[in-house]
DNA sequence: TCTCCTCGTTCGGTTTGACGAACGCATGAC
DNA sequence: GTCATGCGTTCGTCAAACCGAACGAGGAGA
């Protein structure tokens, strides 16, 4: 099942999550309260860390413990909006539309966002391969990569790359949406 | 966030999974290729196992690694509209609430469902490990595992095991929701 | 009863992971 | 130029994780 050893998996995950936070090896070691020599060896896939060590790192990285022992990430695969299959329920009065099938190896964190009219909320580019899914639950939104914003109403769905600068603007009071952050 | 230490979590998980398989401590140690003294101390929450040791145990127990380190999941979790830890943006008038962080190795398919009042939509049990996330966008719903249905209004979020029979009932015309099917 | 087996725990000895100091290498201030 | 700061790596020391052996407890069978 698993080709790569857990140690390599951890080494890759540590490096990936540390890059995501944009902190140095020494800084992360400080935050986690471990010797930077230990962390250096771990990122080199040399060594066999104890649970306490890994736990401290997971806390410092602000990720669930198990994310560090994830199987390695697979190459980037993006599913564009509209590629989902529409599935009709066998029972009447009920429909289910597949908005986006999850690519293998991707992680999707589920958020609920709300906004009020005003200046747009500018989001910096996330790590490469990030995709954002937005489904409006209330009010109207204007969202998307800079220069390619689209306007969305209740029930509308959009997905766009999150690894470029992008914005959210609430156009009506009490605007809400479901935001799914997808990391590959 | 986590009250119990990772070591206790592991100790409990080891005991639970071993009981599930119905094997003795010595037998499990044999299968995992570790000394039974080591395993004995781990189940007593004494010690600080290395990743290799834990990995061998996870393989021998035939469970994903994360099952040994993640605290047990609660059956049904509801986050009411406005509840949850909302993170305010640096730019005002914008909040983001993390509903569910994606577990490693999981796949999440994103659906938008609509329903009309009438008989409930009964869903059969999906494959083991499936979790469903539901966030209501419009109207009111009653949903959840059979006998544990909860009523949800706009903005409410619930997640529950999908590997048991469960139902969705729309209580108002034009009810809508985002459904995320999570497969481990 | 006695024997034999397996259970889980406890006890030294060895291996090794974690630590801290020192290293070489960059970059920036003066 | 020199100095200072921070980076990531390497090395020697020490604590501890892991191991194997021995232990007492319980059960099955002759």
UniProtKB/TrEMBL annotation, chains A, B:
GO molecular function: DNA binding; DNA-binding transcription factor activity
Chain ranges of the HTH cro/C1-type domain: 14-68
GO CC term (a single one): cytosol
Pfam families: Cupin_2, HTH_3
InterPro entries on file: Cro/C1-type_HTH (IPR001387), Cupin_2 (IPR013096), Lambda_DNA-bd_dom_sf (IPR010982), RmlC-like_jellyroll (IPR014710), RmlC_Cupin_sf (IPR011051), TransReg_Diox_bact_type (IPR050807)
Claim: DNA-binding is one of the keywords in the record: yes
Keywords of the record: DNA-binding
The organism's place on the tree of life at top rank: Bacteria
Protein name: XRE family transcriptional regulator
């Amino acid at each position: 099942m698993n080709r790569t050893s857990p140690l390599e998996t951890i080494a890759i995950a540590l490096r990936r999550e540390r890059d995501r936070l944009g902190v140095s090896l020494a800084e992360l070691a400080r935050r986690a309260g471990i010797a930077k020599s230990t962390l250096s060896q771990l990122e080199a896939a040399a060594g066999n860390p104890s649970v306490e060590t890994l736990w401290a790192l997971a806390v410092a990285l602000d990720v669930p413990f198990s994310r560090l022992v994830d199987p390695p990430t697979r190459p980037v695969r993006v599913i564009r909006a509209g590629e989902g299959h529409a599935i009709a329920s066998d029972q009447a009065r009920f429909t289910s539309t597949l908005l986006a099938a999850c690519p293998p190896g991707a992680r999707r964190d589920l958020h609920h966002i709300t906004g009020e009219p005003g200046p747009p909320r500018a989001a910096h580019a996330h790590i490469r391969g990030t995709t954002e899914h937005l489904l409006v639950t209330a009010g109207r939104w204007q969202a998307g990569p800079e220069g390619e914003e689209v306007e969305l109403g209740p029930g509308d769905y959009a997905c766009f790359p999150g690894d470029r600068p992008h914005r959210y603007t609430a156009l009506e009071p009490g605007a809400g949406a479901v935001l799914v952050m997808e990391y590959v």
